[in-house]
Amino acid sequence: MDSNSLSAASTAEQSQSPSTATAMSSNGRSPCRVIKASTIVQSLLDEVSEDLSRLGRSPLLVGLLANDDPAARMYANWTNKTCTENGFQYELREVDRQDLEQELIGANRDDNVDGIIVYYPIYGNRQDQYLQQIPVMDKDVEGLNHRYIFNMYQNIRFLDERQQKKSILVSRQTTKISVEHHAYQLKPCTPLAIVKTLEYLQLYNMSLPYGDRLSGHTITVINRSEVVGRPLAALLANDGASVYSVDVTGVQLFTRGEGLRKRRHEVVDKLDWKMEDCLPLSGVVISGVPGTAFKVPTASVKEGAVCINFSSDKNFSPDIKERASISVPTIGKVTVVILLRNLLVS
After folding, report:
1. Under 8 Å CB-to-CB from 123, ≥6 apart: which residues?
2. Which residue among 9, 35, 67, 284 has the highest number of C-beta atoms inside a 10 angstrom radius?
3. 3-state secondary structure string across 193-245
4. CB 187, CB 170: distance < 8 Å
5. CB contact set of 171 (below 8 Å; sequence gap of 6+)
6. Res. 94 pLDDT band, cuts 50 70 90
7. Residue 158 DSSP code
8. How far is Cα 127 from Cα 16, in angstroms, rounded to an integer?
């Protein structure tokens, strides 16, 4: 779990929830709805509780902390709290980063360990990518194993040709998670948490087939890291959205592609484009840039957009409530619950 990346309800009842705040727009339109992560996670926690009761035991999640990043420790604490409050075992192991590889190998071999999470960054370079491949697939609750990543980018939603081993992204509205087998296609936790947030906001049209449920939506994702930003852009494009992926190197457009043979998304470099060119076109803006200096320029955001922040820093200024219809300030708690959901099916 990358600590830098963790960070409108459709009914009147949801808009009046104590976990949902409103801010009146100065231009006279409907107020911006501020949706808290604690509101989003409730239905997911209900699913987790149901599946845990069927499992009949308390799985053990081991967290490995090998840095002094305050945000990493905060999310380790959140993981511990969420586990203990919902019937899971959690053990935090603080290790020197030079010993992390052996700790991971030991956790792989320990039959008492059901899942492993590492609080990244460790080295902040390609060595972290190597470490991500060490947890065995059936303990990789973060979904960072190469096979999971490959299948995600290739838009492979099942692990078998008979399509009986379903993707974890399959909605509970159409199928139940079975805890009796271990054949689900996991996805990286933070991208999946953002997808579940979009589902909660009813931006996904669940009546349409897979690949079409985000058709008609244009989304800007500000972050193209291999842990969150690029996987997220691919997931959203594979579901039918047009996604502008923005980072310091420029802008890319992710789309599903056309034609029966094009199963996966396509990527086109948008030469000479900047973030300010993408924002006015996008009904959804998702940002996860680490550091307090970066702010999404409010004036460029499309009127009535949905704005979601997944950085541990605040990427949107307070005046975003003057333009957005929905603001989700953090999703860290959603990510932690996705870990538990993955733990039950990994």
Report:
1. 97
2. 35
3. HHHHHHHHCCCCCCCCCCCCCCCCCEEEEECCCCCCHHHHHHHHHHCCCEEEE
4. no
5. 199, 204, 206
6. very high
7. B
8. 47
What contacts 232, CB < 8 A, 6 or more positions away? Answer: 190, 191, 194, 195, 221, 223, 286
pLDDT in tens, 38-90: 999 998 999 899 999 999 999 999 999 999 999 899 989 999 999 999 999 99
The pTM for the full model equals: 0.80
Of 62, 75, 78, residue with least CA distance to 4: 75
Confidence of residue 14 (pLDDT cuts 50, 70, 90): very low
More confident residue, 138 or 308: 308
- Indicate the Cα dihedral angle 7, 11, 12, 14, nearest 10°: -30
**Catalytic residue ranges:** 189
Q: How far is CA 45 from CA 48, 68, 199, 237, 327, in A?
A: 5, 30, 15, 27, 22
For 9-16, the CB contacts below 8 A with 24+ separation are 9/33, 9/35, 9/39, 9/200, 9/201, 10/201, 10/202, 14/39
SS (H, E, C) 61-104: EEEEECCCCHHHHHHHHHHHHHHHHCCCEEEEEECCHHHHHHHH
Place of tokens 């997911």: 44
- Pick the range with the lowest mean pLDDT from 17-21, 108-112, 171-175, 270-274: 171-175
